[in-house]
Specification:
Layout lengths: L6 E6 L2 H12 L2 E6 L2 E5 L6 E6 L19 E4 L3 H10 L6 E5 L4 E7 L5 E7 L3 H8 L1
Protein name: Glyoxalase-like domain
Pfam family, one: Glyoxalase
């Protein structure tokens, strides 16, 4: 199997709020849009995001009103503290303050207006050091 891109889709009540949040705070641009969905992308190859409006009829009936539970959009970033400072300055509420996990992951979290959790993270000692430790 060869994967050319990856997209995750969420069903949300306020399509425009999620679109604006990821556009304004995370550099996404609108690739496609209609009344009941929007597709967002980034030039750097980060995962694409799609938002469906709750009740969208093209979805299977059992998914039309189901919102993701337990899903987290996670971004590995270069300067975690700078990203936290930037988001705070932009008025984004930090829902989980910066912390370091025993396995070396450093992270903090925010949430979009529809409640989608967004985790920003890096690795104590750097990603290369973590990969070497796992080998």
């Amino acid at each position: 199997m060869q994967v050319s891109s990856t997209t995750i889709a969420f069903t949300v009540d306020d399509l425009e709020a999620s679109r604006d949040f990821f556009r304004d705070h995370f550099g996404y641009t609108v690739a496609m849009a209609a009344d009941d969905f929007v597709s967002l992308t980034r030039e750097d190859g980060a995962i694409d995001l799609v938002f469906h409006r709750t009740g969208l009829e093209v979805l299977p009936e059992n998914l039309r009103y189901r919102r993701a539970s337990g899903a987290i959009v996670a971004f590995v970033v270069e300067d975690l503290e700078a990203e936290q400072d930037r988001l705070r300055a932009e008025g984004v509420e930090i829902t989980l303050p910066l912390r370091v996990e025993p396995w070396g992951e450093r992270l903090f979290m925010v949430a979009d207006p529809n409640g989608i959790p967004v985790e920003l993270l890096d690795w104590a000692g750097g990603a290369e050091e973590q990969q070497a430790a796992q080998s």
